[in-house]
Amino acid sequence: MNRLLYSLIVYPFSLLPLTFLMLLRPILYVSLNHVVGYRKKVVLMNLTRSFPHDNPAQIKEKSKAFYWHLSTVFIEAVKNLSFSADALKTRIAYTNPSLIHELHAKGKNILLVGGHYGNWEWLITSLGIHFPTNVFGLGMPLSASFWQQKLTERRERFGLKVIHSKNYREHILKETNQPFILLMLADQSPGDSSKSYWMQFLNQPTAIPFGTEALANETDAAVVFLNLSITSPGFYSLTFELLSETPKTLTFGELTEAYTKRLETAIHSNPSLWMWSHKRWKREIPEDLNALRTLQENRFNQRYR
After folding, report:
1. What φ, ψ does residue 142 adopt, rounded to 5°?
2. Suppose 254 and one of 31, 49, 94, 250 were both cysteines; which one would form an S-S bond, judging by CB atoms 3.0 to 4.6 Å apart?
3. What are residue 138's DSSP bridge partners?
4. Is 12 helix (H, G, I), strand (E, B) or coil?
5. Per-residue pLDDT of the chain (305 residues; tens, 9 = 90+)
6. Of all residues in the chain, what percent are helix, strand and coil, respectively (each to 5)?
7. Pairing of strands 197-200, 135-139
């Protein structure tokens, strides 16, 4: 059934002009926001907690803007299945790829860190166009194997290699894959609250995945934030911002706080672009955060300092 759906409907639709596909956006928006109410309670709860000074009307406006963007991203993701390299390059402009080339020329491993903000599907797919050698994207596989296979196949068609978060080391630590470029969208809820870095994010205590900081220290990788913005409807701009070229000189948590605060700034600049439907704050706050922080810092220093 999934194969027929993809072959007869989804992929043929992706071959249509994007301007035509966007005519379906109001229908999709009404369906997601009003008919289905996709994760409506989660969206409203996340927005209310993240913007405590907003009144109900302002929260409602933010919710509507999010569903409009979600409808846009859904259509753009379908189009991404068949986009040519040239077409994709015109839709997401890289303002300063020279930064990555310079770091790569120095032999530096590079961690690209961002969030589910803007259009991450175009971002993932386009990386292989600009950096075709040893570029990886870290992710969790979908439960539906057919869609996982097809999505991975489409994401990888220009050179990026999608790798699993549970066995990524066997890929990026191979001598033949050095130096590497690894994309990490580090804004989803981590699996274990006791292994997470806890900090204030969007006005509430939040468990932040610590994998980026740990891997940066393990591989002495430069860490670069992905600043993605909309320049006009259907067009995006990506700017690379160097957070650290020497992670081993930073104190525990400094790197994690740097990219998380940078993402928070981006979200405040345009809240509609972030995925508010994620159950981002589902982890329980540990009873003694100070004790946990001390334990984590001691372990970190023993391993990396």
Report:
1. -75, 155
2. 250
3. 163
4. helix
5. 888 888 888 999 999 999 999 999 999 999 999 999 999 999 999 999 999 999 999 999 999 999 999 999 999 999 999 999 999 999 999 999 999 999 999 999 999 999 999 999 999 999 999 998 899 999 877 767 888 888 899 999 999 999 987 777 777 877 677 899 999 998 988 888 899 999 999 999 999 999 999 999 999 999 999 999 999 999 999 999 999 999 999 999 999 999 999 999 999 999 999 999 999 999 889 989 999 999 999 999 999 98
6. 55, 15, 30
7. unpaired
Q: Which two tokens stand for residue 96?
A: 């300063």
Q: What is the DSSP letter of 33?
A: I
DSSP state of 148: H
Tokens 């969030």, residue? 115
Which sign does the torsion angle of CA 287, 289, 290, 295 carry? positive
Residue 39 CA to residue 97 CA, distance in Å, equals: 36
User: Alpha-carbon distance 246 to 140, whole Å?
Assistant: 28
- Tokens 């870095």 correspond to 197
Alpha-carbon gap, residue 46 to 37, rounded angstroms: 15
Residue labelled with tokens 């990396």? 304
DSSP letter (8 states) at residue 274: B
Tell me, rounded to whole angstroms, the distance of Cα 85 from its chain centroid. Answer: 21
Query: For residue 6, how many other CB atoms are within 10 A of its CB?
Result: 16
pTM of the predicted model over 0.85: yes
